[in-house]
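fyi for ur records
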Amino acid sequence: NKRPNSLGDGDVQKIQNYFFENPKSSSRKASSNLKISKSSIHRTLKKTLKFRPYRSTHMQALSPEHVERREAASRQFLQQEEDWQRKVIWSDEKLFCLIPHPNRKNEVFCSVENPHNVEEVRVQGAKKVMAWAGFVDGKFLPIHWFEGSVNGES
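which gave:
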């Protein structure tokens, strides 16, 4: 009971060319631009062209100076003495953004193969609250709450 693709080869080629030129486009936008129904575009992408939706991996933008400082800190960490972990304050923090980011599920790329896209993101200026907790020498430290940016003076 499979429904055959009612589009001709020309329309299939139009859809393929459209998504090669506009990989972030939605099937709704393609439907409007190509004057082909959204369901036909979706079916053609999935069944005929074997396209799948992929999402970018987001990573923090790092300058060359940041990379160099991280490598130096890692080398210093590896040269510590044997019982060093008892002298360390182990901590973790959680940043709560009070204004959420756009939903990443809506950001997809349509392609036959995974393009392995990586997008650098900068999240600055949003209202935030930070919770910090620590553990040292077998004892938990109290949770501290910070509003806004956290730096050496906070």
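The mean pLDDT is 83. thats all i got for now
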